[in-house]
Design goal:
Number of helices: 9
CATH class: Alpha Beta
Structural class: alpha/beta
Shape: globular
Largest sheet: 7 strands, parallel
CATH architecture: 3-Layer(aba) Sandwich
Radius of gyration: 17 Å
Strand order of the largest sheet: 2-3-1-4-5-6-7
CATH superfamily: Peptidase S8/S53 domain
Distance between the termini: 39 Å
Number of strands: 9
Number of domains: 1
Order of helices and strands: HHEEHEHEHEEEEEHHHH
Strand content: 15-25%
Helix content: 25-40%
């Protein structure tokens, strides 16, 4: 099935891969094979580009057994990570097309969810990480931090527990920027990797990417990646252009999957340090770019 999106628009995902240097990994035949990525989002549709990639589907909203996505946000995230690009002759291929997915549906058709569902999903992921080779958790959802919120504290504790159990947690900085202190939860966690948005040559003029520091003076985000007007899977065998830190986050998750295929013994701390050492400085303040733009080419040489 050929995409109905124009060739000009369709080059965007290809440009994303080029911008972060994915070709360096592909030349080494590194595509994320064997790396499991858990996605906490709205589910996943039966898109041909994702055929064979979804190993497990857990529904914390309606309790269904078969994969579905009544919002399509989760499907878009999944395509950015490991879509084959089959319906578009490879133009919309994901960053780590041979990685596999563990889908945890925690958002409803409106894109809303509750922390309790996320907590249950995270607990299940940690318990089943070894069985499904889960190395990464992608969290493209978030909530504005609220002081003295017990549920929020539980969420932060749980993502940090997953991190301590050897799973790299990658979370969106949120779209509440550009003011300082606008990073969403769980992106405010000191331990995990938080992702902001970068728009090719410059930070997009209509700035929305969440910025630090956090209330506890932690620098955020750690890393930035392309997230504006990214074309990826949507609905059943269709594609759509979407923007946000939600789109930037799976780019980073995919890049880390490439790194973990190359270096399977890396711990979350090792991965974070690698990003720190290899990120490309884009010339912005640390509260905007953190360490800089993720750079797969440098990661492959690390």
């Amino acid at each position: 099935m050929e995409s109905r999106i124009s060739r000009k628009t369709g080059e965007k995902m290809e440009k994303v891969r080029q911008l972060i240097g994915c070709d360096c990994a592909y030349k080494k035949r590194i595509y994320g094979s064997g790396v499991g990525i858990a996605i906490l989002d709205s589910g996943v549709s039966k898109h041909l580009d994702l055929q064979g990639r979804v190993k497990v589907f857990q529904d914390y909203v309606k309790g269904r057994q078969q994969p579905y996505d009544d919002n399509s946000h989760g499907t878009h995230i999944a395509g950015i990570i490991c879509g084959s690009g089959g319906c578009s002759k490879g133009r919309f291929m994901g960053v780590a097309p041979l990685s596999h997915l563990i889908i945890c549906k925690v958002l409803n058709e409106k894109g809303d969810g509750d922390i309790q569902s996320v907590l249950q999903a995270l607990e299940w992921i940690v318990e089943n990480a070894k069985a499904y080779r889960i190395r990464i958790i992608n969290v493209s959802v978030g909530a504005s931090p609220r002081e003295e919120d017990r549920e929020e504290r539980k969420l932060l504790d749980m993502v940090e527990y997953a991190w301590s159990q050897g799973i790299v947690v990658v979370a969106a900085a949120g779209n509440n920027g550009p003011d300082s202190g606008s990073v969403t939860t769980p992106g405010i966690s000191r331990k995990i990797i938080t992702v902001g948005t970068f728009d090719g040559e410059t930070i997009k003029r209509k700035e929305y990417s969440g910025r630090g520091p956090t209330d506890t003076c932690v620098m955020k985000p750690e890393i930035i990646s392309p997230g504006n007007e990214v074309v990826s899977c949507y609905g059943k065998n269709a594609y759509k252009k979407m923007s946000g830190t939600s789109m930037a986050t799976p780019v980073v998750s995919g890049a880390i999957a490439l790194l973990l295929e190359k270096n399977p013994n890396m711990t979350p701390k090792d991965v974070k340090y690698c990003l720190y050492k290899t990120a490309k400085d884009c010339g912005y303040s640390k509260r905007v770019q953190g360490w800089g733009l993720i750079d797969v080419k440098r990661m492959m040489e690390y």
